[in-house]
Design brief:
With about 325 residues, the protein is α/β, with parallel strands linked by helices. The protein has eleven helices and eight strands. It folds into two domains: about 180 residues, Rossmann fold (3-Layer(aba) Sandwich), CATH 3.40.50; about 140 residues, Rossmann fold.
Length: about 325
């Protein structure tokens, strides 16, 4: 049993972000991210030549420009919101349990690094760690990669820490409720879409290669579980609330339909309003603030100049989402 107390720590793990929106830091971040075989499964020697010779020299500078367009005064949005989530969960757990529980935000790529933080926690006397990936839907390139990184640290440890992992939570009631509240808040600001008149809502998830899906990765099925639960909570049909996939990388086939293809198609068909929510991203980041709110919005408005494009804010530090995380963490602390 993992009991809450001074020797227990909770790690909220997100993907990662460069330290600054400069080509140098973005290049360093992308090198680490794209060198993970869970992310790009190619022969290491072949891929390294492609990565260093073609991908990084061009992508780092372009990505740095995108990061600059969404950077906050406090830093990277992903880092800012993930730290806020850790702080909110820690405060709620202390009120609930009557004693402090160490809650730390960490990143699979970039800083604060998983292995560095685990070493620091060990030095401070922590002996038990609950690892909570901030990905509600499991996929090998995300959750499994976090487990890999923790395992690499464990392999080099003589006196190992005690670990517990959260696998996935695609239909966690509090998570679904938080997504629904974000939608209702957007509708209070912008008016409710006229779904009867043809307006659409998209649930845009990060894509994965089709080959990974065919190999048995449960990600697509869990995305559909989330979508079904969100539709039920909001009273929407599959025709009114569509599932799409974004952020394709590389030439291989990825899950479809693509979000950007869908917004262009709907705009060309005369759909006058599109709402886009990103349930797989629990914190706003480059993929939501730049890819959806700038790139996809621009593509839709080019096809439908008189249309309305409404992106729903990610969960970030919404009280309902923090409450949901606390329920999840507390239930695992007692196992």
């Amino acid at each position: 049993m993992i009991l809450p107390g001074a020797t227990t720590a909770v790690l909220l793990v997100n993907l990662g972000t460069p330290d600054t929106p400069t080509p140098r830091d973005v290049r360093r971040y992308l090198r680490q991210f794209l060198s993970d075989k869970r992310v790009v499964n190619m022969h290491a020697v072949v891929w390294r030549g492609i990565l260093e010779g073609f991908v990084l020299p061009f992508r780092a500078r372009r990505s740095a420009e995108k990061y600059r367009s969404i950077w906050l005064e406090e830093g990277s949005p992903l880092a800012v919101y993930t730290q806020a989530q850790a702080k909110g969960v820690a405060e709620r757990l202390e009120r609930r349990l009557g004693k402090p529980v160490r809650v730390e935000a960490t990143m699979r790529y970039g800083q604060p690094a998983v292995r560095t933080l685990l070493e620091s926690l060990r030095a401070e006397g922590v002996s038990r760690v609950l690892v909570v990936p901030l990905y509600p839907q499991y996929s090998a390139p995300t959750v499994a990669s976090i487990m890999d990184e923790v395992a690499r640290y464990a392999l080099r440890s003589i006196h190992q820490l005690e670990y517990s992992f959260v696998h996935s939570y695609p239909t966690l009631p509090g998570y679904i409720e938080a997504l629904a509240l974000r939608a209702e808040e957007a509708w209070q600001r912008h008016g409710r879409p006229d779904f009867a008149g043809g307006d659409k809502m998209l649930l845009s998830f990060h894509g994965i290669p089709v080959s990974l899906d065919r190999a048995g990765d449960p990600y697509r099925g869990q995305c559909l579980e989330t979508a079904t639960a969100v539709r039920a909570r909001l009273g929407l049909t599959e025709e009114q609330c569509l599932v799409t996939y974004q952020s394709k990388f590389g030439p291989m086939p990825w899950l479809a339909p693509a979000t950007i293809d869908t917004v262009v198609r709907l705009g060309s068909q005369g759909v006058r309003r599109i709402d886009v929510a990103c349930p797989g991203f629990v914190a706003d980041c480059l993929e939501t603030l730049e890819e959806i709110d700038l790139l996809n919005k621009g593509a839709y408005l080019a096809a439908q100049p008189d249309g309305q494009f409404v992106r729903h804010q990610c969960l970030n530090d919404h009280p309902a989402w923090l409450d949901a995380l606390v329920e999840l963490v507390d239930s695992r602390l007692q196992l």
